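User: Please predict the structure of the protein below. I'd like the answer in structure-token form so I can feed it into my own downstream comparison script.

Assistant: Understood. Taking the following sequence of 83 residues as input:
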Amino acid sequence: APKPIDLDNLFNLDVNDDIWLDIGFGYDEDTAPPFWLSNEQVRNSIRVLLDQDRCAEERRYLLAERDAMQEWFSEEWHVVNAG
């Protein structure tokens, strides 16, 4: 279930604050909220999956950068040794 909103800090909002949860829009009171919103284990799993995706993306960038550096160094090596 959604967490209660702290009214004392209502106007000191952060992007991660509970006020941004849209549980009241489109959900009726008779149905349970979706697991991504109500189950902490599912929420943690989503965070881990997003972290894993970011790591895989960063790895691709690093490998491409490594390839570019190796190619550059190889060209420089040939120039230095040819002269």
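That's the full token string. DSSP finds two helices and no strands in the chain.
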